[in-house]
Amino acid sequence: MAIITIKELLELRSKELIGKRIKLVRHKDNRPSKTIKEEVVEGNPYIWYRNDKNKFLEYQAEQHKDVFKNVDYIVSFIGENSKTARFIGVYKVHGKSEKNGDNFHYIITEVEGFDELKEKVKIDWGKSTLSWHQWLNSKNDKDVIEIIPGYDYLFPGYDNVSLTLSQLKNIIIDKEYSSWKQMLSSINAIYVISDRKTGKLYVGSSYGKEGLWGRWKRYAETNGHGNNVELENLLKEDLNYARDNFVWSIIKVLPIDILQKTAVAKEQRIKEILGKEACTLNKN
Question: Which pTM does this prediction carry?
Answer without folding.
Answer: 0.56
